[in-house]
Amino acid sequence: MRAALPASSLRALRSSNRATYLSSFCRPASSRNLHQSVRIPAITTSQARHRPTLEPGYQKGPSFSLRNRTIYIQTQSTPNPSALKFLPNHPVLPESFPSTFLEYTSPRSTLAAPHPSPLAAKLLDVDGVSSVFYGPDFITITKAEDVNWAHIKPEVFSLITEAITSGEPLVNTVDKGTSTEGQEGVGEDSLAANDDDDEVVAMIKELLETRIRPAIQEDGGDIEFRGFEDGMVLLKLRGACRTCDSSTVTLKNGIESMLMHYIEEVKGVNQVLDEEEEIAMKEFAKFEEKLRQQKGPDAAPSTVGKGSLDFVE
């Protein structure tokens, strides 16, 4: 006759059997079907995969040293084939910067007040680079259309890496009270809440800030709110989106549709163009009109016309 087990032993055995059952049930099917004789080697960490360690006494700050830390710079394509997004795994704009972006469109603007940038100056000095856009944690480089990325990408990598490892700030503040031509985003964030905003404008800003800006930043750009007049929301695209061929589609099919859906007072969206953009758009319209006259009345309609977001009176 088999001796009875103590109650404590029975509880331990049942607990062990239950744990074994649950463990086998929660495993993936491939693990449950393995033969018992198969030995799975233990997974060991490789020294090469360890994250870099910081020296004792390291303190985070605007001028901390990264000389002993490996810099990982990733690139991300954008809807604009002439713009490429670089993610250096490091803050780009200063923590107290008033706006969410800073854009340099000329070499002179990188050296002048209020926010000169030695890195932007070097990047714009690269043959083929036309503008440099700083986001909170990314840099968007826009090139000329006739330049190949293979020719300028290695130099851009090298300059960004050198600037970050030096420990120097990427953006300096010289005089907050002045601005310079070719330096955009130096003022207060246009989507920031303002006590003077009425209810409709406040709702427009909230939608732009929470639903639209993250998507545009993901594409290497940003957005500015320029006003709300007669039911029309006035916006300005920046960075990769500023020179993108699909910017009109983004505004009409994306932003305009969302704003009109949630806010009944919104009747449409217009893109605000800078002076040089207006001149370029007028010249393009004249060029297409000339082509249409040469091809005859059956020519395809221009993408720039009255009623279009790109039309300029």
From TrEMBL:
* SMART domains membership: Nfu_N
Q: Which SUPFAM superfamilies does the record match to this protein? A: Fe-S cluster assembly (FSCA) domain-like, Hypothetical protein SAV1430
InterPro entries, per database record? FSCA_dom_sf (IPR034904), Nfu/NifU_N (IPR014824), Nfu/NifU_N_sf (IPR036498), NFU1-like (IPR035433), NIF_FeS_clus_asmbl_NifU_C (IPR001075)
Q: Which residues form a coiled coil?
A: none
Q: Which Gene3D superfamilies match?
A: Fe-S cluster assembly (FSCA), Scaffold protein Nfu/NifU, N-terminal domain
Any one GO MF term held by the record is:
iron-sulfur cluster binding
One matching Pfam family, short form? NifU
GO biological process annotation, one example:
iron-sulfur cluster assembly
Reading the lineage from the top rank, the first entry is Eukaryota
Chain segments carrying region Disordered: 291-313
Q: Which GO terms describe its cellular component?
A: mitochondrion
Query: Which residue numbers delimit the Scaffold protein Nfu/NifU N-terminal domain?
Result: 73-167
What family does this belong to? Belongs to the NifU family.
> What is this protein called in UniProt?
Scaffold protein Nfu/NifU N-terminal domain-containing protein
Lineage summary: Eukaryota, Fungi, Dikarya, Ascomycota, Pezizomycotina
